[in-house]
């Protein structure tokens, strides 16, 4: 019987053995220095999954010291081939245990199996991509114009100890997105997972140890952002912080980084425009625009939550998106038929339902959803149905603020110049979508939209080789692609006078 079948029949996940989950520091599984633990909750049922060690400043200090010792110790002598081999071994182990990891993601943060299972290619692809990059890092020989005989070239060296802080909306892939480039470049890492979903990162840490990653190279300290996360961001011996999360926390991390001017990369929030022209292939655009928001219960930073639709097809298109949302099966993510799972926590449920009330107060009209779901076994979970608001204008809060739930704000437009201006009238700039059969429109919008990603006739396409990141308040730096690896490297110029 598989892990998922066992869970579906009321059994226990093998990682959830009833014992408190400890943190990994310097190759050892330790309790928090304070002895404290916190609960992690199944958002579909409200049940406690596990007690987890609650790290704070003292634990971060221990983990950073372990990471520094590993960085200056044997890990500094690991060859590119050896780093590549470790990443490939880790990929093998993730592939071996992928169903277990899938189930753990579903249990801890609620995403349905239909989504977490589909992360297989992405998770393994990232690990194998970074493995390839490990042997591709090199400097350049640069011609110079100095008189005499001088050779100039560059070296690319690991930045050092990386503090990685990840969100709860995709624990498996978020962990790999931080650990992968660190291992590829020769950095060491202290990972602080989100308190809402710490289990998969801790399980991946076990796989790192099984793969042979040296002690101290990967450390995982669960805890709260205000304590463990803040201590990591401000730590004077951390050389870089890689953060994914909210804009407010990102700003706090930038301020905390000033002490030693550590390098920072930020992948933050969004309020992405998804633009549908009347000439679009509507049979593709309806499900595409719907799932650009309803996937993962809207808990995706680049979700296309501002749905701009050309006025002459607005009523038809928005109505069809609403009907599509109504037909989606909402429920416990462990059920095979579930397409939309719960929100991650009671706090997130309060946030999203608060915005549903704000939308109605502002005069928006819900065509679908609009209220918390209860009954039919949903009472103890944090469920909100796919919601489509019509009659939205640009000044409404539901059109300007990130909700992070399955909520679409549908807005009509009349011409291309207008929709460009309105799409860019936001503090965010992470993702965007364009649906049209006109290649000229597609190219014009791709250049004009100020966002890190523009998806044309698709949405949320991702590949390990293609960079992802934001403009404006959506952050800076890139993840995936060669640009991501460069974020973990310093460039050193070397001059040699040969005459």
Range of strand content: 15-25%
> Any idea how many domains?
2
Fraction of helical residues: 25-40%
- Net shape: globular
Unreliable stretches covering 5 or more consecutive residues: none
Strand runs, count: 19
Which architecture of the largest domain does the CATH hierarchy give at level 2?
A: 3-Layer(aba) Sandwich
**Looking at this structure, what is the CATH superfamily of the largest domain?**
Aldehyde Dehydrogenase, Chain A, domain 1
The number of distinct helices, counting runs of at least 4 residues, comes to: 17
* Secondary structural class: alpha/beta
Largest sheet: 7 strands, mixed
Mean pLDDT: 97
Distance between the termini: 72 Å
CATH topology of the largest domain: Aldehyde Dehydrogenase, Chain A, domain 1
At the first level of CATH, what is the class of the largest domain?
Alpha Beta
Gyration radius, to the nearest Å? 23 Å
Strand adjacency order, main sheet: 13-14-15-12-11-16-17
Short description:
The chain has 499 residues and is an alpha/beta fold.
Fold and architecture overview:
With 499 residues, the protein is of the alpha/beta class. It has two domains: 285 residues, Aldehyde Dehydrogenase, Chain A, domain 1 (3-Layer(aba) Sandwich); 191 residues, Aldehyde Dehydrogenase, Chain A, domain 2, CATH 3.40.309.10. Helices cover 39% and strands 18% of the residues. The chain has 17 helices and 19 strands. It has a seven-stranded mixed sheet with strand order 13-14-15-12-11-16-17, with helices on both faces. Strands 8-7-6-9-10-18 form a six-stranded mixed sheet, sandwiched between helices. Helix 3 runs antiparallel to helix 7. The protein is globular, with a radius of gyration of 23 Å. The mean pLDDT is 97.
